[in-house]
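fold-stage: in
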Amino acid sequence: MSAAMDDATTYVTVSIADQIFGIEIGRVREVFTLEKLTTVPLSPPEVAGVLNLRGRIVTAIDMRTRLGLPPCADLSQAMAVGIEHKGEALALIVDRVGDVMPLADAKRETKPVTLDPRWASVAEGVHRLDGGLLLILDVDHALEPSISALAA
């Protein structure tokens, strides 16, 4: 492996409302399709429900709702990215899961000041791609309101 690739971070790419995000691969436990969600009464709006994933109860967070976007018209077409956050198993519901990409750390940029505030609130930086920007998802920041609301 070249020295340039030693200084790279690998991301799992996901799309939310046609915006591409990258989640550091070390945060991703698995990628799966949603089978059966059970709604949770009185839960925050971004909690789409819970699901049983190989005997473990996983809370599903609708990232569109979390970002103040219209919900996905058909959740059966959505994908989920399984992560661990503060000891909790969570599934981030996204529109699509894309490629796994190693990107050079030296090419990472700060968030543009013109970035939509919804995106800026959950992005910790960007990478320029041929077709636009890949926003690096700050998973901890993106989930903090959801987890705080669950604990209330």
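fold-stage: in (second)
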Amino acid sequence: MTELAILWSILLAQVMLALAMAFALYRIVKGPHAQDRVLGLDTLYINAMLMLVAFGIRTANTVYFETALIIALLGFVSSIAFAKFLMRGEIIE
């Protein structure tokens, strides 16, 4: 019974994360300002990372955890690059 409850709760979490990803994608497309688009992109990569973690828990495969770590690192670096570009207009000085 508990294993079934865990599987159903992971499935529900994945459905909710997919819905959050859809809302973030909407914010990226319809954002009135560049800052809104950057925040939507940050939310999208965080939700994608969490989706991979949930899928890794569901399948008990460690490859998904490593992929989620790579997405987290690349997402952080891209957020810094976008913020620097919006502040100064250039990324590399």
